[in-house]
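Deliverable D4.2, example record:
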Amino acid sequence: MNFQTDIATERGRDDAIRVGRQTIFQGDCLTRLGAIRDGSVDVVVTSPPYNIGINYRSYEDRMPRDMYLAWLAEIGRELFRVLAEDGSFFLNVGGTGSDPWLVMDVAGAFRGVFQLQNHITWVKSLAIGDDTLGHFKPITSRRFLNNNHETIFHFTKSGHTEIDRLAIGVPFKDKSNIARWGHANDKRCSGNVWFIPYETVRTKAQKFNHPAGFPVALPDRCIRLHGSGPLVVLDPFLGTGTTLVAAQRLGCDGIGIEIDAGYVSAAITRLRDEE
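Output generated by the structure prediction step:
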């Protein structure tokens, strides 16, 4: 029995949508996670609803804070169950100037289950001298700066999961360091600040009508950082399918869970375009 069939028929359920090596479940995140076998996932890359009033199609993004964090903690327990012992869980979270504690509160919801192994800053726009690289959503405020970055928390079960740092490495600026420090290749760890800009778009349709997606380069980098091999990738908040697009391009099996039928349709279209 192959992986996708095993996942889809767990507990007698065979309502999965399959495109290439990717499997999509439409429905509630917690309910659908229950169909996935213990320890069967290598990498989770996801971005949950931020609870800041984003206009999603089928989800009201304003829970009371305590209910929202309790819900995330319950999801965290399910993700811990399905994740392999040496697996990685990459959680992308954004915040606002008026709610600066939100990002850390979200991380804290997973603290009782996971170990925080790496704390990564995703830079979306960067000012260098008189120039600006990348894109951000401008705000009108007399108190807050534009928010040009988000956070990626890398959680693991033990805090000791080995990763492939050079898979997303960069060349040395000073080439003498290669021999001087005994490196086998012209590549070093790129660190925990990632500049990943969005592509320029001018319409909502170019963003697949989703208000809070991330670039394919982000899950691509997370998956490659975890390591190569026949990996199983999961995104329990799939949106329009970006994580599975990255998984498909990297030759990984993937599982996506999404509650909204319109976003599921967009994900299917994007994955079929990859075939």
